Fold this sequence. Notes:
Largest sheet: 7 strands, mixed
Number of helices: 9
Radius of gyration: 21 Å
Order of helices and strands: HHEHEHEEEEEEEHHHEEHEH
Shape: globular
Amino acid sequence: MDLIPANPLNRLNFSGGPGVLPESVLQQVQEAIIAVPGVGLSILGISHRSDWFAAVVAELEANILSLMGLDTNYRVLFLQGGATQQFSMLPMSLLAGAERPADYLHTGYWSGKALPEARRVGPVRVAWSGESCGFAQLPGDAELDLQPDAPYLHYVSNETVEGLQFHRVLGGDRVPRICDMSSDFLSAPGDFKRFSLIYAHAQKNIGPAGVTVVVHRKDLFAAAPDNLPGFLDYRAQGAAHSILNTPPVFAIYVVLLISRWLRDEIGGLAAMDRINRRKAELLYGALDDSDGFYHGRAASGDRSLMNVAFNLPTPALEHEFVSAALAAGFSGLAGHRSIGGIRASLYNGLQLPAVEQLAGFMADFSAAHR
Length: 370
């Protein structure tokens, strides 16, 4: 079968999401849309009740646990509804009827989206907010006002909009630690055993839109309400191995290919982290060496390795930068609609040469517009 040649623009996709996928994975996906090897059917027409798909789910569960260094005390789910559904599904299981409020951190746009959904279910306490500083930095441990008996602690590990990332695990181990890792999931190794639940929608580092990965301790929902709708009950989803209803077969299959790519081509999360750090160092270097022409939004110690958010001297120059970048083949550089500016996302699938090209473009643009 002749495959369509790779599109060079895919290599220069700096979008905040959906993010770029590795070219080797794209080639496998292209083939699978026609016929999955060994099956003979298009991935778009394979039954979610087939033995083949059950094996896909089982392998992907095992691959994710292995990449994260977790044992069988954890369960992996592949759900729908994105992180937004998790904003509601979590408190429905852990906060309904609680006497004590859950601790939430408000560190940016997406953590702010989680707050009103949790408040619909039960009491919520904001243990720290970055609103007063314009979400330009993250709290130190001494600034966190955490309860020792909260039902759980919720925070976002990487704020995609503002370009902020925690580079440590927060909180004590007595309170269940819940983390939205949507934009840095499987981008680096971590002390994942300290988390009770991690969730991440796929369209950043690990696949296309349509599936959300949830990794949780099996004992976390022992006391969850018994009257939850089955679709919104982690226990029911786990018992069905994420096939409670028709799941997004295509998206889950692509995540499987990504997990194999991370394991076999990259060599695991430590190797992925080295690549991601080099990309981030290169781009932040372009900011820092610009003599103030490019101004990073995030405090230096809280800079995200995934999302580099910055500004130019004027909004007019920012508009010109985005237009010129697009003409040069760079896609997805406009900042989030809530704050504007520029944002370059450096997700797993983005290769180092693409960042080198962007850094060169930025140097040329600043030299021409000073």
